[in-house]
Amino acid sequence: MSKKTQMTAEAAARIQSREAIKNGGAVEADTFAARAQRAAAKQPQKSKS
């Protein structure tokens, strides 16, 4: 049984940053980094109050 954890914006940013560094600044649309960013964007925003 797998445990599902929601993708956070911070985690997606770390993934996308590493992908960009690896590919000279580019993150293609069909990569895991792009999917992670889309998943994080769908999550409800948390307020910092």
List descriptors.
single chain, 49 residues, mainly alpha, 2 helices, 51% helix
Task: Kindly describe this structure.
This is Seed maturation protein. The protein is mainly alpha-helical and 49 residues long. The protein is 51% helix and 0% strand. α1 runs antiparallel to α2. The termini are far apart. The mean pLDDT is 86.
Topology:
Layout: H1 9-22, H2 32-42
Helix pairs in contact: 1-2
Protein name: Seed maturation protein
Organism: Halopseudomonas aestusnigri
Span from first to last CA?
35 Å
Shape: globular
How many strands, which pairing sense, and closed or not: the largest β-sheet? none
**SSE order, as H and E?**
HH
Strand content: under 5%
* Overall strand count: 0
User: Helix content range of the residues, please?
Assistant: 40-55%
Q: Determine the mean pLDDT.
A: 86
Secondary structure tally, helices: 2
- Low-confidence runs: none
Q: Please identify the structural class as seen in this structure.
A: mainly alpha
Organism: Halopseudomonas aestusnigri
Protein name: Seed maturation protein
Entry summary:
By secondary structure, the protein is mainly α.
